[in-house]
Design a protein that fits this description.
The chain is mainly beta. It has 7 domains: 96 residues; 109 residues, Jelly Rolls; 53 residues, no CATH class; 72 residues; 77 residues, Carboxypeptidase-like, regulatory domain (Immunoglobulin-like), CATH 2.60.40; 77 residues, Carboxypeptidase-like, regulatory domain (Immunoglobulin-like, Sandwich); 89 residues, Immunoglobulins (Immunoglobulin-like). Helix content is 5%, strand content 58%. Strands 1, 18, 19, 21, 24, 27 and 30 form a 7-stranded mixed sheet that branches. Strands 11, 12, 13, 14, 15, 16 and 17 form a 7-stranded antiparallel sheet that branches. The longest helix has 28 residues. The radius of gyration is 50 Å and the shape is elongated.
């Protein structure tokens, strides 16, 4: 059966009885001497505090000259609040300043701030007893009332249930408690205001429909209408089990001091009850309601603008409510631009902290708080503030955008250079990258702080500088020790050497390039300093040099290299083609090539010993030479005949001749024997 008793009796025993005791207003205690604390804030941050006795709800304060701010505080056993403040010329000031109240122990404390003193003389402060408001509503559910309804909704349709008409106006409805079982379909449950208490899954057998594992919601709905919308493309079956929530006409007495409400709650029953607070009745557009309860037993929830408070069984305790506004916080730098990245926390006088969301500070009276701002890569900044006459707070941070223009030694902008700002006060880095104009912009840099500026190019640190960022020093230009170097490679005759590979190495940097047809190689932007330059031709090392590189330097490297020309000929002096030549230096093959015409010129060889290996088909020959000047080496072979890879040498021809003569001689001897026999 679908409809069964609600598990654990969560809502059946809802709010049978709740006893609320408020603090009654009483006149000023006759034997109590009440003083107010007055703080005079002078121009120049000077402060003077005095105490004035309150007699017959009235006291007088003499305000001297040069007072810019007045703070009045009263603490008494009686719940007093400010009624009016009269200036020396008889004007009422009570509507011009913000009033607030808090509770401290069993004594009542009230504050007032007069933020602008326009007239000096005697001010008269008038007090009154606390004012009461009934803002709390006691609700309960009669056990015997229950209504079940099976609702069928067509695809993509909505229905609206008038809860009051369902119960035929028998009760003064405040809300309804629903058990909603969505059998099939994808349904939205909406009402004017609603609060989902629980969600669970149940197995359900529905006649004519089947057995389903469904989602069941216990929903507390505020208002008189429930809207069900079927968002699926098939029919939805919804079963409602509805109980009305009845408005009780108990007069709940609540102590009220300006914007403060205090409640003494007692629940003598052996089951939980619920208390509902209709907060919009004490709110304006930009206000909200804050419940202060240090008791972890109380479970407070806020469905929209209503407060639902679960009161445990046999519970007795005190609850405080504060109405507060939101202060809209704007964090700006000295350029009047919004700070892009920050997190902020508001800290109240009682030590509690709230993270600021959507730039809104919950303003709980008294309006004294500190704003702690955390900015990436910076230390936390703390701002203390006082009361507000408007609901907007602009905090100007001692920060500006800091711009660096990075150039090379010729004054050209340096793109793609990275920079870090390091502060020993925070031990954190701020990083940036230069654009095509060589500009690096650091957003929201704390001023009047010494930073260490580190600039990197191609992952190498090229500049380090200690700077102070201030309001008058938010842009600097840094010339980095980077330039281009031209290296010219020549031989001992002054001839340029092309296609020579140069490798430049310093402790932190490496550059490699090849000389052009004029023997020149121009480096990219590299840091100035001492470089070790090594020249290669192919795999052959030609030499190594040390160059002290300064701005726009030109260096000439003279290499002692010689050319080696080789030709390969046969026994008749004809040049052979398709000849393989290998050149070795210290056992390392530096050249391996095939000659199409039997001639080769090796241009750049340092002085030293070399081995030439010449291969023609099956023919191999090694030649050892010592090179100390340009040299031509003719390789004469004894090859007299070549057919592909078949080679006939002179020695081979002599052997062939002898063998042929022997064969001819044998042939003559055989012929003679044949003649003799005949």
């Amino acid at each position: 059966m679908f409809m069964k008793t609600w598990a654990t009796g969560l809502i059946i025993a809802l709010l049978t009885v709740v006893t609320l005791k408020g603090l009654e207003g009483v006149p000023l205690v006759s034997n109590e001497v009440v003083y107010i604390e007055v703080q005079f804030h002078y121009i120049g941050d000077l402060t003077y505090t005095t105490w004035v006795e309150v007699k017959n709800y009235t006291c007088e304060i003499d305000v001297p000259k040069n007072v810019s701010f007045l703070f009045i505080r009263i603490e008494s056993l009686s719940p007093l609040t400010f009624k009016d403040i009269i200036d020396p010329i008889g004007r009422s000031l009570i509507k011009s300043w913000e009033l607030c109240g808090v509770v401290k122990g069993s004594r009542r404390i009230a504050y007032v701030n007069i933020t602008r003193i326009g007239i000096y003389g005697t001010y008269r402060v008038i007090f009154q007893d606390d004012v009461r408001r009934n803002i709390f509503t006691l609700i309960s559910i009669p056990h015997e009332v229950n209504m079940s309804k099976l609702i069928i909704i067509n695809p993509f349709k909505s229905i609206n249930l008038d809860v009051r008409s369902i119960f035929k106006s028998k009760y003064d409805l405040y809300a309804v408690l629903c058990k909603v079982a969505i059998i099939t379909g994808n349904v939205d449950l909406r009402s004017d205001l609603q609060y989902y208490l629980t969600k669970r899954k149940e197995k359900m057998l529905v006649k004519g429909v089947g057995e389903y594992i469904i989602d069941v919601y216990d929903v507390l709905v505020f208002g008189e209408n429930i809207t069900l919308t079927n968002k699926a493309n098939f029919t939805a079956y919804i079963l409602l089990n509805i109980k009305p929530i009845i408005l009780e006409n108990h007069a709940l007495k609540v102590a009220h001091l300006v914007e403060h409400y205090e409640l003494l709650i007692e629940n003598p029953l052996n089951h939980n009850c619920f208390l509902m607070v209709n907060s919009p009745r004490v709110m304006d557009f930009n206000s909200s309601l804050k419940i202060l309860s240090h008791d972890p037993i109380l479970n407070v929830t806020f469905p929209d603008q209503y407060c639902v408070l679960e009161v445990p069984e046999n519970y007795s305790g005190r609850l405080m409510f504060f109405k507060f506004n939101y202060v809209f916080l704007n964090i700006l730098d000295l350029d009047m631009e919004e700070v892009s990245e920050y997190s902020a926390i508001v800290e109240y006088p009682d030590g509690s902290r709230v993270e600021i969301e959507d730039n809104r500070i919950p303003l709980i009276y008294p309006p004294y708080f500190a704003v702690i701002i955390k900015i990436p890569y910076q230390s936390a900044i703390r701002y203390s503030t006082a009361s507000f006459r408007n609901l907007s707070l602009n905090l100007y941070l001692n920060m500006k955008d800091f711009v660096i223009r990075v150039t090379d030694m010729e004054g050209n902008p340096l793109p793609n250079a990275s920079a870090k700002l390091f502060s020993f006060s925070t031990y954190k880095y701020i990083q940036g990258l230069s654009d095509g104009r060589g500009l690096i912009r650091f957003r929201d840099v704390l001023l009047d702080v010494n930073y260490t500026l580190l600039i990197y190019y191609r992952n190498v640190e090229i500049a380090k500088k200690v700077i102070e960022v201030s309001d008058n020093n938010s842009f600097i230009e840094v010339e980095c020790p980077l330039s281009r170097m031209q290296i010219k490679v020549i031989d001992f005759m002054g001839n340029p050497l092309k296609n020579v590979t140069l490798e430049l190495r310093s402790k932190m940097f490496t550059e490699t390039g090849v000389t052009d047809s004029n023997g020149n190689f121009i480096t990219s932007l590299i840091p100035v300093g001492v470089y070790n330059v090594t020249a290669y031709y192919g795999k052959l090392k030609l030499g190594s040099f040390t160059v002290n590189f300064t701005s726009r330097a030109t260096a000439t490297i003279e290499l002692e290299v010689y050319s080696l020309s080789v030709s390969v000929k046969d026994a008749f002096g004809n040049i052979l083609s398709d000849v393989s030549i290998e050149v070795y230096s210290d056992g390392i093959c530096i050249l391996n090539t095939t000659l199409s015409r039997g001639k080769i010129a090796i241009p750049y060889l340092p002085k030293g010993n070399y081995t030439l290996k010449v291969s023609v088909g099956m023919y191999h020959q090694e030649i050892h030479i010592y090179l100390e000047a340009n040299r031509y080496v003719p390789v004469n072979t004894d090859i007299i005949l070549r057919y592909g890879d078949i080679i006939v040498r002179q020695n081979d021809l002599m052997i062939i001749t002898i063998v042929s003569l022997c064969l001819m001689l044998l042939k003559l001897i055989r012929r003679r024997k044949e003649i003799v026999i005949e």
